[in-house]
UniProtKB/TrEMBL annotation:
It comes from Enorma phocaeensis. Keywords: Cell membrane, Membrane, Transmembrane, Transmembrane helix. One of its GO terms (cellular component) is plasma membrane. Gene3D superfamilies: abc type-2 transporter like domain. This is ABC transporter permease.
Length: 406
């Protein structure tokens, strides 16, 4: 017991590390949680009422169509765009069109050139390059991309209809396009409050916590282990009637106490900041407990890393550097800073080789599920199990270094 108390005293002689890595980074995580909560509130509050209650509502853009062809297909293009976009009438004049785009009167202008219908039918049936519509865009890039996709789809349908019906008139081709474009998939929006909104702040906080836990455990536990491994101190301890196994177990117990304390502080801060146990949270208590248990298992990964670094005789400065760099790298590959879906395939492949990926996947599985099914629990067990294997593998490296040193 005296050895355990002495080991804990070594950690508490460095309160700056406990204050910065545990308290300050946990407080920093609360700002991330608040940002996620406010973002979710804005997203849910800014959506149109029809979209929230009845389902999906497509975005509308203000579009002007300049028809210089005056044909049946050009009229069909205008009618097709008018079904999903807001059509605005402007004069066929360069100054008027530039003014409409500059002032935001319209977000895009579609110009149908003269002879477009004849060129389209001939090109489609002869296999040549299709004539292009002239489209001028404003400042709304999203509306421009959607309109460009819609025009390209209509052109593809018209060319396919003309090619499949080589003797069809322009009016018949327009009818075929109208019939084909009317086909669509039914879209509805299903919202699960627990999975979509209320679990997101806690999940974001726990993902960020992988950085603070790694830094604090590697530095604090590493200091304890490296200090206990110093030659003079170790010689004095071994001179006492204390078995080496007892010395190691008491030192390990002190480090486990540090790990549990760090995990407990970060967990309490996260629960309070995210309001996980509020009556309106909508999250399953079992899901919250499982998510916190996953983070506790993860906390033993930096403990194993601290043990390995201490056996390699790394000092205080090296522990600080490696703890910060390692924590930053692992949290990044775990998706704490940038969602992995926004990164490249190579980065996502590398992420599978760090424990934070599996821990965050386990947390997301239980917090994002409205019901804890066997499939969810299997995914959770896989993530936690792989995380535990990382801790065991790193600890084995430390044991190998210990044997080599002896």
């Amino acid at each position: 017991m005296r050895i355990c108390e002495s080991a804990l005293a070594i950690a508490f002689r460095h309160p700056i590390y406990l204050g910065v890595y545990v308290l300050f980074l946990s407080a920093l995580g609360t700002f991330l949680t608040i940002g996620v909560q406010s973002g979710s509130t804005r997203a849910s509050g800014s959506a149109p009422a029809a979209q929230q209650e009845d389902g999906y509502a497509p975005m509308q853009a203000s579009v002007a169509v300049i028809d210089r062809d005056g044909s049946e297909l050009s009229a069909e293009i205008s009618a097709h765009l008018g079904e999903t976009q807001e059509l605005v009438d402007i004069a066929d004049d360069s100054f008027a069109m530039q003014d409409a785009l500059a002032t935001g009167l319209v977000e895009a202008i579609v110009i149908i050139p003269e002879g477009y219908e004849a060129d389209l039918l001939v090109s489609a049936r002869s296999g040549e390059e299709l004539p292009a519509l002239q489209i001028a865009y404003g400042t709304d890039t999203q509306a421009a991309a959607l309109l460009d996709t819609q025009v390209a789809r209509w052109t593809a349908l018209a060319s396919a209809s003309a090619a499949l019906e080589p003797f069809a008139s322009a009016s018949n081709v327009a009818g075929l396009v109208r019939h084909a474009s009317a086909a669509h998939a039914d879209v509805s929006v299903e919202r699960d409050v627990a999975a979509a909104e209320t679990a997101r702040p806690l999940q974001a906080y726990l993902s960020f916590t992988s950085y603070s836990i790694t830094c604090s455990v590697v530095v604090c536990a590493g200091l304890v282990l490296s200090t206990m491994n110093e030659d003079r101190l170790r010689a004095r301890i071994l001179a006492a009637p204390v078995p080496p196994r007892r010395l190691g177990l008491n030192t390990l117990a002190a480090c486990v106490v540090l790990v549990v304390a760090v995990w407990g502080v970060t967990s309490v801060v996260g629960l309070v900041a995210s309001g996980a146990f509020a009556s309106t949270a909508g999250m399953l208590p079992a899901s919250i407990v499982l998510a916190l248990m996953a983070m506790l298992v993860f906390a033993f990964v930096p403990l194993a890393l601290a043990f390995t670094l201490a056996q390699a005789r790394f000092g205080e400065d090296a522990l600080n550097a490696l703890g910060n760099i390692g924590g930053m790298l692992m949290s990044f590959l775990g998706g704490a800073w940038v969602p992995l879906s926004l990164l490249g395939d190579s980065v996502r492949a590398v992420a599978h080789f760090v424990p934070t990926f599996w821990t965050n996947d386990a947390v997301a599985a239980v917090l994002g599920a409205p019901v804890l099914t066997m499939e969810v629990l299997a995914r959770y067990a896989c993530g936690v199990g792989v995380t535990a294997l990382f801790a065991v593998a790193i600890a084995c490296v430390g044991l190998a270094l210990t044997r080599h040193r002896v």
